[in-house]
Amino acid sequence: MHQFWIATVSGTYASHGESFLLPNDSYHIVEGGPLLGDSPVRLGFLRTVLDDLAVPGLDPIDKWDDPEYVAGVARRQYVRYFGRSAPAEWVFRLPQSSMIGERLEVGDAFEIDVIDTWNMTIMPVGRRFVLDDVQRNEAFARAADPVALPEGEAIALRITRID
Description:
- The strands form three sheets. Strands 1, 2, 3, 6, 7, 8 and 12 form a seven-stranded antiparallel β-sheet that branches.
- The chain is built from three helices and twelve strands; from the N terminus they run αααββββββββββββ.
- It starts with a helix and ends with a strand.
- Helices cover 15% and strands 29% of the residues.
- The longest helix has 13 residues, at 39-51.
- The protein has one domain (1-163): Immunoglobulin-like (Sandwich), CATH 2.60.40.
- With 163 residues, it is an alpha+beta fold.
């Protein structure tokens, strides 16, 4: 699932196939059939997250210079995937779009949902984050307390601009 989330926030598509021997000595990848294991339900959850976005589709916000996995539509909605290195808390930071889209501005307000991609839960943080420091390549809500993140891997954030 980690690779699916990486692919998604990198602006590409991934597919799922399983290759194991079936009782008839053929392979699942040849014969087809239901997918096995924990991935199918989690792929469905990823699809639900994507379908619930305020804006359709995800593109990398700054695929050249930003080291974080952040995709979305600049200044409207973002998905930040932490992967295997989620910190205990996250200080609000968004990359500026280097290619297309609107630039972030001081006063832009956002709400955040914490997504546990493995346990398939979405929890709203329940407070507003207002940008107070906008620089050339990134923007911050420095006055806001950090967002506490659950322990473990596979954590993502859905960050949505609000009026």
